[in-house]
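User: Can you model how manganese (II) ion sits in this protein?
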Amino acid sequence: MKLYEFQAKELFAQGGIPIPRGQMVTDAEAAAKAAAEIGKSVVKAQAHAGGRGKAGFIKLAQSPDEAKTYAAAMLGQTFKGFVIGRLLIEEAVDIAAEYYLAITIDRETQSPVMICSAQGGVDIEEVSESHPDAIVGLVIDVAYGPWDYQLRDLAERASLDPKSYRQFVDIAKKLYDVFVRNDAALAEINPLMVLKDGRMIAADAKFDVDDNALFRHEELLGLKEEAEEDPIEAEAHRQGVTYVRLPGDIGIMGNGAGIVMGTLDMVTQEGGAPANFCDIGGGASVETVRKCLSIVLMNPNVKGVLINVFGGITRGDAVANGVLEATAQLGVKLPIVVRMAGTRAEEGLKILEGSALVPEGDPIEAARKIIALAKGA
Ligand code: GDP
Ligand code: MN
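Assistant: Here's the modeled complex, given as structure tokens:
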């Protein structure tokens, strides 16, 4: 789970890492108000992608009016596929130097590795190609965490200004604590800024939490909701359902990512437009089918649902009973076509006969049927 810059900075601040004063806003009016409180400020579009500076999504605003103009220009724009809905209004600072500091997991040593460079800022990717020696690393033994002397050595190898060593060691230790405490996969500060007055601050922040550890971070779930644009996808993830929303009107469910992808293609090929991807997984129980179906039906565009099941471990009769019970419980009125093959498919299709559900053995025929039924609905 990737956090926005403003969320990552909140975590940093909680861990004692200095960050610029700032405020997250979602409209231009609020941007002007924040800038009036902060003074000369930087307007920063929030997106789960880097390189905003170069793309014009970070702007220095001299006045609240200017902040408002930039905010209005950025909001609603698309940056690397992300629609900008949030801005961070932050105090503008006087820059003396821009360093780079990050922690990630090194697969080779199976340990956290700290990466540092004196040549931080917007071109770190280029530095890694043209001057790989300007980027230095420290593999951390998780039994002890980083020792101060190791961090001072890292700062020296990276050619940081010796006047900054003390602050660097302090920030690096705190970043390691935040990284470990939140089960991060990546924590990055670029630029780690040295200001003209000598202070060192985290001017940008990237933070990626290991999804497999989210279950033990209830305090991060609020951030997760904010981090996800689509409310249905957010609800699906809360319930542990694999779901991706799509722009069409035909709900799709299947047992396995491959068969669901194939179903999306078949519906599209037959002239329909899928409303989602939803994988119900193997051994689908009534409870799982009900959960998935209720998520799929949260989308108001859905006019019909195609359920495509290939019975292997999953048995056709179990799915048929699951779908019947789930539709009854949910009071579904929309047309539903169930296509089945494999283990106990015939029994499954027989169970569905006489119900409001439309059983079908052939996948292309099933796609055609749901498209026609959705048109009529
Ligand atoms: P990114 O391009 O998405 O990585 O966004 P950053 O937050 O790293 O900002 C990019 C660049 O904008 C930084 O490297 C700085 O040079 C510049 N920048 C960011 N904040 C400030 C600020 O407060 N004052 C000034 N003058 N420049 C800033
Ligand atoms: Mn950056």
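A couple of observations from the model: The radius of gyration is 26 Å. The longest helix spans residues 165-181.
User: Helpful, thanks.
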